[in-house]
C-alpha cells in the first residue's frame, strides 16, 4: 500500500494537464468564432438598401443582430480598443477585463458555480458587463469610452437597418432565433 503523506493535492483531475485546459479553451474560442459570419457577407454592397418602413427596419435589425452578433461584438470591441490607445491605464484595464470575460464567460466548460449555487449565464453576462464599464470609467476615460460605445452602437444600428436580409440563410436564421429565444426565457 502506498501512502501519499506530504503530497499537495492538485485541482486538476488525474491525467489532465494545463495543456489540456489550453487546448480545450482554444477549441471553445474557435467554436465561438465559428458563428462569426464572413466579413464579405456582412459588407456585401448589393445587400445594402433603405428599408421601406420602420417595421421593415426593425425586422431587419432583429434578423441582422441575430445573424451577425459575433461580427457586431468584434466591431464594437475594436472601436472601443482603438479609442483606448491614448489611455494606457484604460487599455490595461480593458485587456484585464477581456481576460476575465474569456475565462469566466467564453471559455468555461461547466456552469459557473459560486458557494454551491449555479449562476445563470445571463447573470454572468450582466455582471461582467457592469464590472467592465465601472472599471473602465474609474480610469478617468469616461467621455472617451462613452463616445466610442455610442459610435459602436450607431455603426451597428445603421448596418442592421440598411443590410437587407433576403440573402441570409433562413435555416441558420431560425436556429439563431430559437437559440436567442430559448436563452432569454
Your description of this structure?
- InterPro entries: Prenylated_rab_accept_PRA1.
- This is PRA1 family protein.
- Keywords: Membrane, Transmembrane, Transmembrane helix, Transport.
- Its main location: membrane.
- It holds the Pfam family PRA1.
- The protein is mainly α and 185 residues long.
- The chain has a domain at 38-164.
- 66% of the residues lie in helices and 3% in strands.
- It contains eight helices and two strands, in the order H-H-H-H-H-E-E-H-H-H.
- It has helices spanning 18-34, 39-42, 54-67, 69-83, 88-106, 121-137, 142-162, 170-184; strands spanning 112-114, 117-119.
- The chain has a two-stranded antiparallel sheet.
- Strand 1 (112-114) and strand 2 form a beta hairpin.
- Helix 5 (88-106) runs antiparallel to helix 6 (121-137).
